[in-house]
Design brief:
With 304 residues, this protein is an alpha/beta fold. It contains eleven helices and ten strands. Strands 7-6-5-8-9-10 form a six-stranded parallel beta sheet, with helices on both faces. β6, α9 and β7 form a beta-alpha-beta unit.
């Protein structure tokens, strides 16, 4: 049985599920999702988004106490002092074993860890697992799982129609806590206007100057409208007030994608099925140039 911790925003949730799904398929074993993070109020603005996607019988995938008992892994849902002590001791014992032999695997860094894919026993995985190398083998299944369960809303369908009738480019500008929280800003760094203008120029050059229509996505869309100089016919998708999971699928329907330092727009680009797509990603993912996520960006994407 694979139990994977689901936490964070929608982009992280998709990465976490994708690894768990890939492991369950590779080793023909059961998959369970530990969603207790959303009851801890650590990030009150985050919520469990996977039920909106085409994941079959997702309510039956939620991990229960009996699943932890069956696997012999301490249940992280239990928050009493005794349970926390038991978990701490269990994690220490597991940490001295070779990674592929552990029953609790805490992601040690940002790069792809091949040993994780060798795990064929009951285990619990906690991390973000941001590399397609974990699930590329099952790309068709993952992309099917990440279609929406319900049709787009009327506004969403209207936007998708606009996108499909043009040579479209999605631009994602991540702000929010990533620029307003000093600690997160130091960790991730910000993207300049030059990054976005350079990315657009690159796509224009590769498409022989064909007229492009820009579709803008952001968690601070009014700031973007007031501070970024996009073309007059640019469409500011996020001011339509549609759910974030709809925005993600709409982003993926664009011809080309310019992503931010964000797992959200990473998925918007990865789910884009256009075989001729151009995806532009930031070359430096983190604020500290010494921190490099070698396996985050697929080889076919362009890093600027």
């Amino acid at each position: 049985m694979i139990i994977i911790r689901i936490s964070g925003g929608i982009g992280n949730q998709l990465f976490q599920y994708a690894l768990g799904r890939a492991l369950s398929l590779a080793h023909n074993t059961e998959l369970k999702l530990d969603t207790h993070f959303y009851g801890l109020n650590i990030e009150p603005n985050r919520s469990f988004k996977l039920p909106h996607f085409n994941i079959q019988h997702i309510e039956q995938l939620i991990a229960t106490d009996s699943n932890f008992i069956k696997t012999g892994i301490p249940n992280p849902i239990k928050q009493d002092v005794f349970s926390k002590i038991i978990r701490k001791g269990f994690r220490f014992i597991e940490s001295i074993k070779p990674l592929q032999k552990r029953k609790i695997i805490l992601e040690p860094g940002f790069d792809f860890i091949p040993e994780v894919m060798q795990i064929d026993h009951d285990c619990y995985l906690s991390g973000v697992w941001q590399s397609e190398k974990y699930f590329k083998q099952f790309e068709t299944t993952i992309k099917s799982d990440f279609q929406l369960k319900k049709p787009l809303s009327d506004r969403g369908a209207e936007l998708e129609k606009m996108i499909e009738s043009s040579l479209s480019v999605s631009i994602h500008i991540r702000r929010g806590d990533q620029v307003n929280d000093p600690a997160l800003l130091k960790k991730h760094g910000d993207l300049t206007r030059e990054y976005y203008s350079g990315a657009l120029e690159y796509i224009k050059e590769k498409t022989n100057g064909a007229p492009l229509r820009v579709f803008v996505f952001s968690d601070e869309i009014e700031w973007v409208k007031n501070n970024m100089n996009f073309s007059p016919d640019a469409v500011y998708v996020s001011e339509y007030n549609i759910p974030d999971y709809e925005e993600l699928i709409i982003m993926s329907s664009c011809t080309h994608n310019i992503i931010a330092k964000s797992s959200y727009s990473w998925w918007g680009a990865w789910l884009n099925t256009n075989p001729q797509k151009i995806v532009i990603a930031p070359k430096q993912r983190f604020g500290d140039p010494k921190t490099i996520a070698h396996d985050l960006i697929p080889e076919s994407w362009i890093q600027l």
